[in-house]
Sequence to fold (205 residues):
Amino acid sequence: MIKKIVLASASPRRRELLAQIGLEPEIMPSTVEEIVTDTAPEKVVMSLSLQKASDVAEKRKAKGEMADTVVIGADTVVAAGGQILGKPRDREDAARMIRSLQGGIHQVYTGVTLIASGKEGELVRTFYEETHVTVYPMEEEEISRYISSGEPDDKAGAYGIQGLFAAYIQKIDGDYSNVVGLPAGRVYQELKALERCLEKETNYD
Fold:
């Protein structure tokens, strides 16, 4: 029985998305040093989500706090033209990213890992969601104005779809919440499957 959800992230957006589907997680951000060994976006986000969730799960196990608990780790990247766009280093870098996105189609990948302790040992589920986003062409003045708003500063790909950048979104193919930072519907369904597994002590497929 799942009684507690622990989010291994300080992201207010992920917390809000979980609240939207009726979940109130405990916030325990991972402090692990992230290691990236892949270049494929889907593999990167799954690997990083696993690292984050494992870091928090290990800390809780050491304190005896994993009973009836699921740890959720997540990581989101934006990819354009085969290149991964993380969080911008500065506003010049943010402007470069927005220029690469405007007038085209890019992908947003979010990797998610769920970790729970069952009677037969640890249960781990890692998956990813991919959403395609089409951005209207933007004038240089619009790019500068958006960068000056400060909104891109801490966001993968230098934009927030739920903020001012919504003015430039032409089309979304896939899960909107995935672009915000967590595929909420998929997470909910995976939690249901995990709970059934914990109740019956069967394999988590």
User: Anything to note?
Assistant: The mean pLDDT is 93. The longest strand covers residues 121-135. The two ends are 17 Å apart (CA to CA). Strands lie at 4-7, 26-27, 69-80, 83-85, 105-118, 121-135, 169-173.
